[in-house]
Input
Amino acid sequence: SRGQLWVATVQRGPLTLEVRGAGTLVPTDVRWAAAPVAGRVDKVLVQPGAVVEAGTVLIELANPDTELAALEAERDVAQAEAELARLSATLDGSRLAQESAVAGLDADLAMARRRSSIDTSMAEKGVISDLESMESGDRAGALTSRLEFEKKRLIALRRGNSAQLEAQHSQLERLRALTAFRKKQLAEMHVRAGQPGVVQQITVEAGQAVAAGAPLAKVVVPERLMARIRIPEASTADVGIGLTALIDTRAGTVPGEVVRIDPAAQNGSVTVDLKLTGPLPKSARVDQNVEAIISLAKTGDVLHVARPTVGEAHQTASLYRLENGEARRITVKFGRAALKDIEISSGLAEGDQIVLSDMSRYDGVDRLRIE
Output
């Protein structure tokens, strides 16, 4: 019966293209607080919904090994400092002894040179023999060689002392850095919020063992939200970054803009992220269900018809066209889609009437008589 059918007429004219999707409000600024080291949850100090500041302690962990490592690191630093002081004193003593030896030889050489000069003069006058004069010169020469050698020893000693002190300083700095790291690990056993916001999720409970790096708490900024919706896979060909959208939060509508389109489809739909360009209602919450309409474009003069129960954008479908009291099955290729209408690419002409009702019970029947 014609009265039982939902019939639409193909029209020609401009078509406002839109696509609808449903999803939720998700935070744009999310910080996870993670376990710095393996340990056991000692206390959970906040619960989901708590308002926190940056640095607020969320969870306290306990790990005896971490505490012991911090104490041992401090002990190693104290020992290294004591060793540096002892080594510095020892090296200063050896350096001073060598400098004293060089100074003594320098004085002896000066005296030997004066003695050699006097003996040379006396030998020329015949007061002493030439042999005695030569012996004085030999003593001065021997002292000169010995002084040069001891000066080289002093230079080498200073260089060696400097290298030993530098090595000990490096060891001390390494141990101090390790101690600072151990203390930082110990302080991080008080797991803190990385930003001001609201605690959305606590993943552990008191007494639970956790591994290093395990996520413990999720903190979000409730004022910084975006809409994450899913749209039919067939509609993504017309969706692009920067398109405007209107998000319905049930408490009001908010303008938005497409900022991300997931490159992969899942279960016939694609995820699209919408940045909110207007203020949210005060009742808006994270994970709240929303619907959104993305404005694609406005076409020129095209054929279009009300959307049937079968067929999606850029797909083909089998429909019944009314003609001469009959409904005949035809193949129609659709183009772009609006919310209520869809573009006709081929298969229909202006003024044609088609059946939009669900005709699945007549699969396999190409012609029906309409009374």
